[in-house]
Amino acid sequence: MEDLPSMTVSQRDQFLVLNDVFRIYSDFDASDIATQIFTVEIQRDKQLDYLMNGLRHLGPSFSSLDANRPWICYWILHSIALLGESVDDELENNTIDFLGRCQGSDGGYGGGPGQLAHLATSYAAVNTLVTLGGDKALSSINRCFLRRMKDPDGGFRVHDMGEMDVRACYLAISIASILNILDDELTQGLGDYILSCQTYEGGIGGEPGSEAHAGNTYCGLATMALITEVDRLNLDSLMNWIVHQQGVERGFQGRTNKLVDGCYTFWQAAPCVLLQRLYSAHDLVLQGSLHMSQPRDEDHEEHAHDEDDPESDDDDSDEDSNEGLLLTFSYHLQLNLVALFEDCRRVQPVFDSLNLQRYVILCSMVPEGGFRDKPGRPRDFYHTCYCLSGLSVAQHAWSKDKDTPPLNSDILGSYANHLEQVHLLHNVVMDRYNKAIEFFHRAV
Ligand SMILES: [Zn+2]
After folding, report:
1. Among residues 69, 250, 277, 383, which one is catalytic?
2. Average pLDDT score over residue span 304-311
3. Would you call 387 exposed, middle or buried from its count of C-beta atoms within 10 A (0-12, 13-18, 19+)?
4. Which residue among 46, 143, 258, 377 is the active-site one?
5. Does 95 or 280 have the greater pLDDT score?
6. Could you tell me the sign of the dihedral formed by the alpha carbons of 419, 78, 276, 226, in that order?
7. What is the pLDDT of residues 210-235, one digit of tens each?
8. Domains of the chain: which residue ranges?
9. Does residue 392 have a pLDDT over 70?
10. Which protein family is named in the record (predicted)?
């Protein structure tokens, strides 16, 4: 460090990370083809061993996560689902029973049996049970609870008397949407609150006045999409902020001028793909509207005199037309949110998808299984979950619709690296989401 006397701590850390990352990249580039092919394989067996072992037994070092046990279930089981696998009946039943003991008598899940119900662990428990699927898992969820967390200011509190932030809003709305209990009471004033958290940079902070952050940007954007108010955000500046968070390492950072981290692969790439699909849907609406508003010959004749008519007001008609397009856009969003995931064209991702995958596989993946934040850090289940989720988003970012699998060229490494597609707004595997939605629509 004596060579770097004028650097701040952050600059020094960034310098060291860049050194590590570019050393890994140059070693990779200098290796022979067989080594390169092996190095970019996800190594499913090792990933599954690491995940299954964690589900069966965790050592004493995990005691600090005692209030996050449903999260551990979610991180592990969702990772297993992304790899296209599931657990045996015994592990499934044990997980359902355990989460049942975390659930309070009037709904909501605590971090462990007997702990206070919290929106974060409730989200983790619900997503775990959706990932397991089946009547036993899904019917174990008590759908009351969320209304108690609603604040008169529009947002949500994470628990009774707890803090209110964008994360809490997303957790509540994601749960409500999957459980099919989303209504006007829950969404009242929520859009205004999220809007007040979008910063001058374009990203979204945790609460009004806070710095834009990847996790909160995902939460805010997903919430606005779920309550069909996404067009109220400044989407251009949001997109601009996110794409500029992909650093020279090609991984994403979570805040401006902060270090790259594998978990932001999901928190930043998912909003990019979501925005691309929104823009695609918007383009389709515009094309449809323009097609519908093509002047007919008789219109030309009828209004031919307008060209010389000083009373005619073209600006007004343009405004009406723009307003109509916006209304059409909103109408489209309200009625056809699902279509955003079904009716999109194949597009080039707005981020560098293949080099993002390269960062995650070469720098975050641990050869023994599991993923980490960055080189030199230990692996953990949180980073394994969000690195795999982000890899899935990057692989599927080019796909035409949810039923179109990625092409070979969309996936770094062989097609054996292909991961299941996630639902961008909930981060559960798409077919598990579809089955849960079917179940909860039947359960009304
Ligand atoms: Zn991280």
Report:
1. 383
2. 37
3. buried
4. 258
5. 95
6. positive
7. 999 999 999 999 999 999 999 999 99
8. 10-39+245-292+318-413
9. yes
10. Belongs to the protein prenyltransferase subunit beta family.
Distance 380 CA to ligand 1 centre (A): 10
**Would you say residue 387 has pLDDT above 90?**
yes
Confidence of residue 443 (pLDDT cuts 50, 70, 90): confident
**C-alpha of residue 71 to centroid of ligand 1, in Å:** 15
- Please tell me whether residue 189 adopts helix, strand or coil conformation: coil
Evaluate whether 391 touches 270 at the Cβ level (below 8 Å).
no
Q: Residue 263 Cα, ligand 1 centroid: separation in angstroms?
A: 4
User: Which residue of the set 157, 165, 261, 426 is catalytic?
Assistant: 261
User: Which residue in 175, 179, 135, 141 sits closest to 156, CA to CA?
Assistant: 175
Which of 159, 255, 379, 396 is catalytic? The answer is: 255
Question: Which residue is associated with the tokens 């709305």?
Answer: 173
Among candidate residues 418, 363, 369, the one with its CA nearest the CA of residue 47: 369
Q: How far is the CA of 411 from the centre of ligand 1 (A)?
A: 23
50, 109, 218, 264: which is the annotated catalytic residue? 264
Q: Is 313 a catalytic residue?
A: no
**Arithmetic mean of pLDDT over the chain:** 87
249: three-class secondary structure by DSSP: coil
Cβ within 8 Å of residue 409, ≥6 positions away: none
- Per the CB < 8 A criterion, the answer to whether 164 and 153 are in contact is yes
Please state the separation of Cα 165 from the chain's center in Å.
Answer: 17
What integer pLDDT is reported at residue 426 of this predicted model?
98
pLDDT tens digit string along 116-136? 999 999 999 999 999 999 999
| Distance in Å, CA 308 to ligand 1 centroid | 64
